[in-house]
């Protein structure tokens, strides 16, 4: 089973749910960049203090800072499997991540793309009942995804790492599909 993974897919495709399930069943570390940032801030580390100052100004944390946090987490893993969720989000981030992973001798083994039709995504996201999930906001998030993140699909496809998984059906069916393509 491949155990150094990256999950891609539009908002609402189930990346977080599936990442948790795959990590739990395979003893891998789930590296969600949002969670990593929050835990660094909570720990009061130097990186956390730097990230907190940026976030308190309402700015986005720089690629360099996120990379430094990912690096510190990966160095602590000592060879365990991992799943990156939420980073990289752009091709420049992917290009910056690659030499780091090579240096750590932990290159990505597979990039799982969870695919779902917009109509299904919108319905799924509206049913979550989150305050920020109205149709206009959702459509905007899908546009941002297509503009910024979707280019990663061809980037990783060209590297021979991309596997596509239909993200329709029950949570269990989707997990089973992902497990099959990673075996």
Word description of this protein:
- The model has no long low-confidence stretch (mean pLDDT 92).
- Helix 2 packs across helix 3.
- The relative contact order is 0.20.
- The protein contains nine helices and five strands, in the order βαβαααβαβαααβα.
- The protein is an alpha/beta fold and 183 residues long.
- It has a five-stranded parallel β-sheet with strand order 2-3-1-4-5, sandwiched between helices.
- The longest helix has 15 residues.
Q: Roughly how many Å is the radius of gyration?
A: 16 Å
| Percent helix | 55-70%
Number of distinct beta strands: 5
Report the structural category: alpha/beta
Secondary structure: elements and pairs:
Layout: E1 4-8, H1 15-26, E2 29-32, H2 33-43, H3 46-56, H4 63-77, E3 82-85, H5 91-103, E4 110-115, H6 118-127, H7 135-149, H8 151-158, E5 162-166, H9 171-182
Parallel strand pairs: 1-3, 1-4, 2-3, 4-5
Helix pairs in contact: 1-9, 2-3, 2-4, 4-5, 6-7
């Amino acid at each position: 089973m491949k155990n150094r993974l990256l999950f891609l897919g539009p908002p609402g495709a189930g990346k977080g749910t599936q990442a948790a399930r795959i990590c739990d069943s395979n003893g891998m570390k789930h590296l969600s960049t949002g969670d990593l940032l929050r835990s660094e801030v909570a720990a009061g580390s130097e990186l956390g203090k730097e990230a907190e100052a940026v976030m308190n100004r309402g700015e986005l944390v720089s690629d360099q800072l996120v990379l430094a946090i990912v690096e510190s987490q990966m160095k602590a893993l000592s060879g365990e499997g991992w799943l990156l969720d939420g980073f990289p989000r752009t091709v420049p981030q992917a290009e910056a991540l690659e030499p780091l992973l090579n240096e750590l001798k932990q290159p990505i083994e597979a990039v799982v793309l969870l695919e779902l039709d917009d109509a299904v995504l919108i319905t799924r996201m509206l049913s979550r009942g989150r305050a920020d999930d109205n149709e206009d906001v959702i459509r905007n998030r899908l546009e941002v995804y297509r503009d910024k993140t979707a280019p990663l699909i061809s980037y990783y496809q060209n590297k021979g790492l991309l596997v596509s998984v239909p993200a329709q059906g029950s949570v269990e069916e989707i997990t089973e599909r992902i497990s099959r393509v990673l075996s």
